Amino acid sequence: MDFKNGLSLSPHALIAEERGLDPMIGRKLQAGEEAGLLPFLHCVLAERGGQTILESYGRGLDENWGRPLGEVAFDAGTLHDLRSVSKSVVSLLYGVALERGDVPRLDTPILDLFPDYQDLAQHPERKLRTIEHAFTMTLGMEWDETRPYTDPENSEIAMEMAPDRFRYVLERPLVEEPGRHWVYSGGATALIGEILKRGTGKTLPEFANETLFRPLGINRFEWNAGKDGTHSPASGLRLTAPDLLKIGRMVLNNGVYEGHRVIPEAWLSASLRPVVATGEGLDYGYFWFCGQAPVTALGGPTPWFAGFGNGGQRLFLCPKADIAAVVFSGNYNNWMAWIPPTRVWSEIILANFRNAS
Predict the structure, then answer these.
(1) Helix H segments across 136-280?
(2) Handedness of CA 11, 16, 18, 21 (dihedral sign)
(3) pTM for this model (two decimals)
(4) In whole angstroms, what is the distance from residue 8 CA to residue 23 CA?
């Protein structure tokens, strides 16, 4: 057994030290949890350069797309809601379909792809909304997800309850020109998911399994669907933490996994590029949040990218540090749920990165 400062070190601690992080990183995570600063955490899993540097699983109440599961003891094999981290996975799928020629370019008007709603296409202003506006959530249409997801007035919940989800989204009142302001919208993601389905001829789980999950060796997943049978691209995916981390590693490797190209590099460059400010201190790409954090070992503010999900679900990526991290949490429908995963990422993982070599 190796010791440092009188405390025994786990194998992950030794790897963390070898990979340039404070070997006490796991103890600091534990201390934060014991102090009540990191409540509701179900899992924290991080790696640098393909080697695990931090791994922690706990117990807690959980849900499956809003359905209570009771108390769950989490481990590496536990499927967990990704909620809106699903959006970032859908972005990857579109990149594959685009390269294959299955789906149209981003400057294509959305209504051109929904000929069943020709009454809406008669309004020239509606035809200005493109696929790229959906990806950047700048459609300039009325949408409100600031209400709790238990509230039927929340636009995503209203969409799920509507007799025709796509008409519900496409006929929202126009409030400004597209491309100007970011408004968080599961409706925008619903449109992208349907364009994928129509273009590929496959459901989201079928296409994801063929082009993403199987190439990464991901054999277990679930993808929740609404009452009409439509799989939710906005929030329906469930994966294990190690499998989500595989996706993160592949993205950090510019779309390559174990020597095989999975996602087009050009798509990753485009989708991880900050396009629009969210007004919440972050920018947004194509279903990816873009931020910065101080990293002393890298000389100061350093870009990172992430998929965010309700309840504190996160896939964090810092290309310059070559670090990927997954956080699963059970703080659903709480607007303060962003705090614990942000602390884990900024104050536990990046703050303890000491050597970039």
Answers:
(1) 155-161, 165-170, 186-200, 204-208, 241-252, 265-271
(2) negative
(3) 0.96
(4) 10
